């Protein structure tokens, strides 16, 4: 049996062993042969804090690697992608961490509150890995670049090869996305080239030869009938006095003035025409503009590209065209019956309010029911309530119905009952109730009517 003094002595030794803090916790090690990463977290009941400490250490390690990125490289990357300095460095840091291999755990230490971990990575091993990855990336990119050149040379016989050439050029950038502004030297066709520069130059040349043309650059679009309007744009490639339609080219559409919903991306068909489509359009602006452009991001959308590559592609000038849209609001025929205590109002209250609200939203009104897109019917009347101490109460009931004149269907119906007005006479109380009910129609009924008439 171990005696009690012996147990106490062993516990004291164990406590001292745990409590002794290694030097790397208080002073960061400096080692010319290794990149260093140290992580620390607050301890918790869950063991997840161990993984968190490791992540922090690898973040720290990758920061030590990327701290020496040249400002010239960053400047080149900014120019190509349009990103700012912090975004570029953050992207480089993220990519570096994702590519880390061969790191080793040196030590761990913990007390009652914190958990520390120390990792390192051999600089020579890292450099070997980087060079091998770079070589593999260059070889893959160069192979795609060669395929792009082959497609480019056959453009005069088949318009589809233009799209294929662009696709290969964009795909050739994907293996190089981690090398940012690095020009990457290699050999092509017996000559030394800077691969990234050559890809960009070739891509920009082929894009400069493509022309997008809006088939109908000016369109009248009626709200509610927007889905019938096609945004047709043709794509042609012109070089050496020859012209060919470009098929399967991804064309994106978006509003640059106004607002609405579009089919965002359409590929050109066998005739080199993309048939874009307006799904809905806001009636608030009479003159709107839609821009169409060749969308390079469509060539890599399924490959989970880096933020840098996406921005670089978006920053490349591509062929564009525009549509000018003249928005025509739906025409409305409005009939309104408004009576106060059995007498028709000489000056209607609800009708002008509804007209003002809808006119502000781009709708127009007509006296010709046959030409109207919708008919709004208002039926309202007031009735006497009670009188207390010279205060008279009158109630107003309103029913509003909206009919689609194209289909003959009632698309909306609602009512407001027992809207109370209090004044010095029943007649004045009725007018007060009418004023209040018109406000409620503006705030509650009109938005529902607009939704129904879309």
Output the keywords:
454 residues; alpha+beta; Endonuclease I-creI; Immunoglobulin-like; 4 domains; six-stranded mixed sheet; five-stranded antiparallel sheet; 11 helices; 21 strands; 34% strand; flat
* Low-confidence regions: 5-17
CATH homologous superfamily heading of the largest domain: ABC-type transport auxiliary lipoprotein component
Q: Taking Cα atoms only, what radius of gyration do you get, to the nearest Å?
A: 36 Å
What average pLDDT do the residues reach? 87
- Note the total helix count: 11
CATH topology of the largest domain: Rossmann fold
The profile of the biggest β sheet is: 6 strands, mixed
* Name of the CATH class of the largest domain: Alpha Beta
**CATH architecture verdict of the largest domain:** 3-Layer(aba) Sandwich
- Structural class of the helices, strands and pairings? alpha+beta
Count of beta strands: 21
Percentage of helical residues?
Answer: 25-40%
Indicate the overall shape.
flat
Beta-strand content bin = 25-35%
Distance between the termini: 90 Å
Indicate how many domains the architecture comprises.
4
Protein name: LPP20 lipoprotein
What does this structure look like?
The structure is a single chain. With 454 residues, the protein is an alpha+beta fold. The protein has 4 domains: 25-125, Endonuclease I-creI (Roll); 132-207, no CATH class; 210-294 and 314-328, Immunoglobulin-like (Sandwich); 331-453, Rossmann fold, CATH 3.40.50. 37% of the residues lie in helices and 34% in strands. The protein has 11 helices and 21 strands. It has helices spanning 4-19, 23-26, 48-66, 71-81, 85-98, 123-153, 160-173, 195-208, 307-314, 350-360, 426-452; strands at 34-42, 104-110, 114-122, 185-188, 191-194, 210-214, 218-222, 230-239, 242-245, 250-257, 260-262, 265-267, 273-281, 287-294, 320-328, 331-340, 343-344, 364-365, 374-388, 391-404, 409-423. The strands form 5 sheets. Strands 16, 17, 18, 19, 20 and 21 form a 6-stranded mixed sheet that branches. Strands 6, 8, 9, 11 and 13 form a 5-stranded antiparallel sheet that branches. A 5-stranded mixed sheet has the order 7-15-14-10-12, with no helix packed on it. Helix 3 (48-66) crosses helix 5 (85-98), helix 6 packs antiparallel against helix 7 (160-173) and helix 10 packs parallel to helix 11 (426-452). It is flat. The N and C termini lie far apart (90 Å). 30% of the residues are buried. The model is unreliable at 5-17 (pLDDT under 50).
